[in-house]
Design goal:
Elements: H1 7-24, E1 31-35, H2 41-49, E2 52-57, H3 60-68, E3 73-75, E4 88-94, H4 103-111, E5 114-125, H5 143-153, E6 155-162, H6 163-167, H7 176-181, E7 191-198
Parallel strand pairs: 1-2, 1-4, 2-3, 4-5
Antiparallel strand pairs: 5-7, 6-7
Helix pairs in contact: 1-2
Length: 199
């Protein structure tokens, strides 16, 4: 599995994570839950920024890598989270949704742990040419499917765009973007980001 990254792609990922947490977890005492945190890349960025963050993951191998990096990750899924309800300012899922059999069930469970003013931030790949190379992928997501997900989960969609356009400070929503970007040898822009709030 792709648990470690390097080179320009990793540089762009870290820049992306810094922008998210600098924007949505900048208030003093902000608490972040990184759900499906893997080896802890986002937790390292939160640590660098001084953000109080906790990671959970369902896989022992990811937890082991995180521990080797000096990070403490809890083994859990959406059914057994050991936290109080309404306790997080940000709940972040990076490349998790596409692996879930029932994303609506997971999102509905997670929103109970979000403060009334908190942000649920989802990032997921669109149906690019290499999406199905990962046998654990269940479904790709699009700009439109994020809108539908918000309706089904009873959430308000505050931001809905491509990761590349988000990094550039733009809000592009046309599907032509990911089609064009998937022609290029640079697939970061074909991922989408959605910022959801409790309705």
């Amino acid at each position: 599995m792709y648990l470690t990254y390097k080179g320009p792609f990793q540089y762009a990922r870290v820049r992306y994570f810094r922008k998210i947490f600098s924007t949505y977890a900048s208030q003093p005492g902000a608490k972040v839950l990184d759900f499906g945190c893997g080896p802890g890349d986002t937790l390292l960025v939160c640590k660098e920024l001084g953000v109080d963050a906790v990671g959970v993951d369902a896989f022992d191998y990811s937890i082991k890598i995180a521990a080797e990096r000096g990070l403490s990750v809890i083994k859990a899924d959406h059914t057994n989270l050991p936290f109080e309800k309404n306790s997080f300012d940000v709940i972040f899922l990076q490349s998790v949704l596409e692996h879930l059999r029932d994303p609506v069930e997971t999102i509905e469970a997670l929103k109970a742990y979000l403060k009334p003013t908190g942000a649920l931030i989802l990032s997921s790949p669109t149906p690019g040419p290499h999406f199905w190379d990962d046998p654990t992928h269940v479904r790709p997501f699009t700009i439109q499917s994020f809108r539908t997900l918000a309706q089904w989960a009873g959430l308000k969609l505050e931001l809905n765009t491509y990761v590349l356009s988000y990094l550039l400070g733009l809000n592009i929503q046309t599907s032509l973007v990911y089609k064009l970007l998937n022609i290029l040898p640079f697939s970061l822009g074909s991922n989408i980001i959605g910022v959801f709030r409790k309705a």
